[in-house]
Amino acid sequence: MSHIDENAKMESLNIAVLSVSDTRNSSDDRSGDVLEERIKTAGHNLAKRDIVRDEIPEIRKKIVDWAADPDVEIIITTGGTGFTGRDVTPEAIEPLFDKRMDGFSAMFHKVSYETIGMVTIQSRATAGLINGTFVFCLPGSTGACKDAWDNILKGELDSRQRPHNLVMLMPRLTER
User: Fold this and answer.
1) pTM here?
2) I need a labelling partner for 66 at 20 to 30 A (CA). Which of 13, 27, 92, 134 fits?
3) What are the TM regions of this chain, as residue ranges (predicted)?
């Protein structure tokens, strides 16, 4: 089991949050608010935050720009992972992945099943690596964002988590 090594130094990461929605704006982006609050409470920095429409070119442009920005180490998206016609976040982002993180989707569904049951099959949550930047694509519900952060991301993005965490890999992500 994982545990937090209280003697280890906590490394604050620069995390960007992108909400994908045709209907939300900065005043009612509750999922983005949930992620921002949790990121800051965990001791990380909110590097950037924005909202884009459910349009593949808009999503891709923002992700490519942020993945190229040295001040962004992690990107978390919320929204657009369902099955309706306008849900296009995986289609926008997965072709950009240098490497997929299939285990994230598996763990997300395990955690989500404990909260909402079989409805979790309606999510296409995904994750991967783009230009040395971890990208996590979450559903747009506040519950899904809480589940993903509290049960997966919070620990994996904590440099003190032992025996392993994603932060330990970061210096080597762009090796060739």
Assistant:
1) 0.97
2) 27
3) none
